[in-house]
Amino acid sequence: MAISQRRAVRKESGTPYNRDRKKRKAELGKPASLTKIGEKKVKNIRARGGNTKLRTLQYSNVTIMEGKKKVDAKIVRVVENASNRHFVRMNVMTKGAVIETDKGKVRITNRPGQSGQIQGVLVKEKK
Description:
CATH class: Alpha Beta
Low-confidence stretches: none
Number of strands: 9
Radius of gyration: 19 Å
Largest sheet: 5 strands, mixed, barrel
CATH architecture: Roll
Distance between the termini: 51 Å
Oligomer: single chain
Number of helices: 2
Helix content: under 10%
Mean pLDDT: 89
Strand content: 35-45%
Shape: elongated
Structural class: mainly beta
Number of domains: 1
Strand order of the largest sheet: 4-5-7-8-9
């Protein structure tokens, strides 16, 4: 069965919406990319309107914003992930996840599964 992003079949009261309507191409969803730590692996996928997205499957570097300059750092492991507690042990990176790097702890500020790279802000500097 396809992943659908359409509204529920029934209203809050319990009465159904129009039953004759079928799924539409525009309502299709895609499985999550679950970006992990590893050698760079990026996949180009087609988005709505013929646009393209870079689906990041594996990545090993993070670009950290320190003031107005960018610094690259090597990712060691995922420390904390608010979206799912099991993502920490699986080393899955999403927006808002805290990762440990060789520069210190970094919070991811972009959506790595949709942008093809990982960017973050330094939370705690390594001593």
